[in-house]
Task: structure prediction
Amino acid sequence: MSDKTFGELFWNNVDKMLEENKKGLKDISRFLESDHKKADNLYHRLHRSRSEGTNPSNIMGQGIYNYFKRFDEFLTVGFLYDELDEE
Result:
């Protein structure tokens, strides 16, 4: 097991998925919020959570999971907390 917190594991895997799909946090915030002002506020909350390595709220975490389901219908929510070993 890694010494990383759940939040750090979550964001490492989110960053990896964003990179693989050539997307960013702004894409997630726009997916979750259609209103531009609300999307900007959500982006700042996501960015702060990622910077601090903290778990997002359940609602934000579920929204992020739903965003990635668009790219891979077979994803499970557990992938967000898996430690990815590329060996």
